[in-house]
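Take a look at the protein record below and flag anything odd:
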Amino acid sequence: MRKSFKTDCKFMMILFGLFIAPFFTPQAKAQLYNFTEEQMISFTGKNPYSRFPGGRPMIPAAILDTLRKMDIQVVEAIGSIPKEYANQYEDGWKSIVPGKKLIGRAFTVQFMPSRPDLVAGMQSEADKNNFTGLNNRTTIDMLQKDDLVIVDLYGKVQGGTYVGDKLSYYIWKTTGTGLIVDGGIYLTENIAQSGMQAFYRGTYPGALSNATVSGINVPIRIGKAVIMPGDLIIGDQDGILAIPPQFVPNLIANVVKDRRRDVWMKKAFDLGKYKSSDIYGRPKDPKLLKQFEDYLNTGDSKLLPN
């Protein structure tokens, strides 16, 4: 009985050691605030594009430019995400420029409420690994062209002001996109003068306080939405949508077809000779259905109803 107890204890200690070992290796310490490159690649393994140093998916600039020229709406894009990805959308935002869309690659930043021992420990690890600090400027200085910084400030507005007008201007000039903050910003009238778009929860006339950076380019939750580093982000008056990179090619193809569908059906209604039930959904007449499907695939104006 005693031997069995000792054996069980030894086995449990081995398991415990295996479980905690990754968190105490030098490599893990260096990555207290973000994924290792291996982890990033593992968590975003279906990414079809190249990657930034460190492994974050890099949707090509040309594709982002195409998406912007298409002026894609959230309501158009959401249907291209499989149903099992049910937590990609969040609404209820305030915005700096009403009606202006945001499109970019997700650069995620996570904050937690400050706690002295937590902050001291995190800063110690940062110092050991030549990390430049635990503040908003650290994360802002890491941004690149076409990044869209998504900030999890857990809805904090008072003391949760990620940026004012000067740092937001830096973000605007560096990325060409804007920012999304599940928290606060301030000096919004000044920010609006730059033309930069931002989605945020509220304003407070004071600096960021009692909050500390706890993660950079890690998975974050913004309200109901789960956002991974490198996701395509689309933001408009309906809300924000995070689209995993592997679904971007289908998104573009689906929006093109959906828009052609709208054009074809409205053209048919313009003729005044069809009931809605003849056309809507799919045309009932086999000849019209063939014409409709060919138009969806080609966009040839000769295939429009006449």
User: Anything to note?
Assistant: The radius of gyration is 24 Å. The chain is about 40% helix and 20% strand.
